[in-house]
Fold each of these.
Amino acid sequence: MHSCIEVNGSGLSTLSKEERQKIKSCTGPLDAIKNDGNLYKVTAKQVSLYIKGKKDVLVYEYLPFCTGESGRSPIEVKQVCDKKKWSCVIISSVYDGIFPIPSNNNFPMFVIDNSVYNTDNYQTYSELFYADLTNSNSEDRAVNTFHYFHDGKYVRSYASIHDV
């Protein structure tokens, strides 16, 4: 079992000026975003719209500073999804350790738009974001990192990418 404990802030205040310039608001559909080295802030509503248009989607609740399942390489998660022919959305809960975004990622990186929840406490806004996204407050969803959707509906959450 691994634990990922850090100061509760989003990590935005620790970014350099150059890193902050790479944070953009997502203003269009998620599928229109490409990996361009930027990090795109998304709302649960935007992610829900993307999910509704896909058959199978895995949303990875990524914590870059974590050494456990929540900190698994996004490239590895995307490879698992590609093998299953699932769409994959990587959403970081924080800004800590996310930059630089590797240029060999063949997918965009997203971060929760915490302004929707009026808090910088990543544990608070992450919980609210995933409750909104999944429409579930189950313990299974709250403690796990990999959230699976089928035909636009939340099905379940997995603790490990190997369980997916």
Amino acid sequence: MKKSFLTSIIGAAMLIGGSSMLFTSCTDDDYWPYSPPSGWGADYFYDNRLNGEWELTQANSRPVDRYETNYMDFLGNGRGRYYYYYNSRPYSEEMAYFCQRSNSNTTDYQINIQYEDGSASTMAYWFTDNGNTLWLQWLSGNQTVTYIYSRVSYIPW
């Protein structure tokens, strides 16, 4: 009887301990930096014209097909999500962003995006078509890269 009681207590303790590990292994991403990293100063803002869902439609004046496209969902206040295909499979990750004034010859604004995978991009941006077309432009080596995004009503994920 004593052995069976002790076995029951150990079993219950293991069950409770295992359950608590399951619940604590889920992480909350409140640590995500939705504001600029230190050193960027206070010269930033969140451009509400970006808010909404955007689909990549052209890359360097070339239309993109279904598995080359990606999507950005700007939720406001520096929060967003990036959707893309890899090996024809859909993936998504969190992104953080902020905007600044730019000294570019193309536009007065630049956007800084930090992706969940740790990569980051700084790009000049501007709008056409009454705010329904978003242009992103940056230098890659000595080549200018231009992506054109169109506002969409939903992301097909």
Amino acid sequence: MKGKSVVKRKFPVRLTEAAEKVLRENNGEAPPSETKKRCRSCRAWVKVVAQLKSDGLEVETCEHVMEDLEFLLSGDPPLVYVVWGGRDGYSALPISVAHFMGWRFASDEPRKIHLLGTVDDVAIGLCLEGEEELPTAASPSQDPHAEQPGEQKGLPETLVRFLQGRLRVARLDPRGGCDVFRPLE
């Protein structure tokens, strides 16, 4: 951002359980989110860096792009979610800032959501405590509560219960917005 008036500002935020977990696992700083935006004043491309820290959301960019972000963060302190999709890695940001930075998906749960796929304008994910749950999903016969072979046709009841408790859905915005995964109802 040479030649530009660079400003750094910290914004108050509220944390979801997922954002708190990210801070705990990363020594009080979530992975930074970086993008480039065209400054509406000078029309140059400028770098924008947003990073959740234990004392708030820190943003660094040119003064004109900062004005846009200040508008997005005005009012009550926004809730911070874990965000991913549309780029590599993950971060923790308020939904409005996540959309501004180019992220597609968010979660307020402190567990990892594996994107299974999309159908029309809906994304479907599987929310897991950890990788150790994958064998149960892949092979319910390893589950001690599973039915005996031949007892039931179709999906085993244990697999159905497993999936019911872990499936999550999010609406996809055709304009590329960021949405929060919610439990399937």
Amino acid sequence: MKKGFVILLALAALLPAMAQEVEVTSLTRLLEGVEGPAYYPVLDSQGSRLLFLSESGALKLHDFADGVTTTVSRDYVAGHDACFGGDGKVYFVTQEVGENHLVYRTGNCYDVLTGKTAIVTEAQHGAVRAVPATHGGALKAPVQSYSSSTDIGSAVWTEGSTVHVTVNGEERVFSPVDSWAGYLWASLSPDGKRVAFFAAGKGIVVIDLRGQMLAMLGNYEMPCWYNNDYLVAQNAKDDGHQFTSSQILLLKADGTYSTELTKPASMTMQPTSGGGKIVYTTIDGLLYEMKINIYE
């Protein structure tokens, strides 16, 4: 009887995971025949607008309401350094190589309503990061930084092997896991209570606003919150020279569940989420929008 009771308890513990199911309800190719290859997509929190980089590195914005795509900047935008602020504006970093062969980066702010761009930090050598905040946006840099206002609300970003969390004007700095190669891709959960980021060599880490580690979700990249309980991420493999596979995963924030949304052979990557949408691109720069249902 005792052995049977233990088995029943073990089966009961498995029931939540067994009952969990994710259904892809729609999958749509975006901007087909309209735009060339597109990379590093970024949705706003409502899922109403989408930023992406062209093959040349120019920054573009697509409005789902009217179907119009606007070129925000023809200058080369550094990596993933473009985001929507909580004020609806776009914060991004352009870069150029100076006469001394050093790379210089400039912080910019684009007003979606007026279509005007303002330079908010002068060209400077070194890393410049575009940081979304709940009340606006910021550009973080070692020489000259910028904030859209004195109170930008809550914000998170990484510098080296530290994650910075600003709450009610108070900046907190944490290093919850060792990572000699540093942290990347920090983001705040929609309810503002948790932070997810990638630690090189360790994977995706979830902490609270006091730096307490809550979960480690696996060695995946580019985490982005789908809602308060789930994240989407990229699971890419390479042979040291090129990608051999890449897929999009859905991960539960407490580390208890994960499932694939695309297959490894699909070469899908760089996920973003907002307003119940998931957008990602392929290695060839084809943009897709996915919608899902989660049954628990």
